[in-house]
Amino acid sequence: MSTHDVRFDVIAAGFSGDESTARQGLHHEDALVRASAIRALHRMQHIAADELRAALHDTESEVRRTAVECAVSFPDVEVHHLLNDTNIFVAEMAAWCLGERAVTEIELDALIHATTTHPEAVVREASAAALGSIGEERGLPAILIACNDKPAVRRRAILALAPFEGEDVRLALENALSDRDWQVRQNAEILISPRGEDHEE
Asked: Does residue 85 register a pLDDT over 50?
């Protein structure tokens, strides 16, 4: 049977409830089959935390990324170390995952660190968004720093200010109204309007 056929069977197993076929795919030599097996088992709600933990250490980035995505419903499966993954899309997914679930102090610290120091803008952007989703005051200073980052990061950072109040937040939004990037300006306008604050064009 070709790898394509095996992957098709594994994907189909996720919809038909064939746990045995899906689980066999976890150990296939092809990374896409392994990733599909994780998704299939997750769809059936039969993926185990230990299976996700093992997949987080897979040599292939697609498998790690899939495992991180599915770990969003497994808060006991640690993913914060993958903010430093060699593949930026795995790191980006780790930030998203943390922003979608309850986090520990260590995980919050990791997001703060990634928002302000990660060498890849896409990871800083995702980490800032995650801090906004979490809404923990301790993450606010990092978001404010991100408001002065590259355009894509600034856009997400401005939106991440939504759950916060205070003079620093107000000033950041006011400054964003004159940002050279129109999407940053637009995002600031979106946030300012519901707050009942007037501003001039």
From this structure: yes
Q: Give residue 198's Cα distance to chain centre.
A: 33
Break the chain into its structural domains and give their ranges.
1-77, 79-201
Residues in the chain: 201
CA distance 147 to 159: 10
Q: What confidence category does residue 194 fall into, taking pLDDT thresholds of 50, 70 and 90? A: low
Query: Which pLDDT value is given to residue 1?
Result: 81
- Phi first, then psi: give them for residue 198, nearest 5 degrees: -90, 145
Are 89 and 78 a contacting pair, CB within 8 Å?
no
- From residue 17, give the alpha-carbon distance in Å to each of 4, 14, 87: 20, 6, 32
Residue 130, both tokens: 């995650």
Amino acid at 98: L
What is the pTM assigned to this prediction?
Answer: 0.91
CA distance 179 to 131: 22
Architecture of domain 79-201: Alpha Horseshoe (1.25)
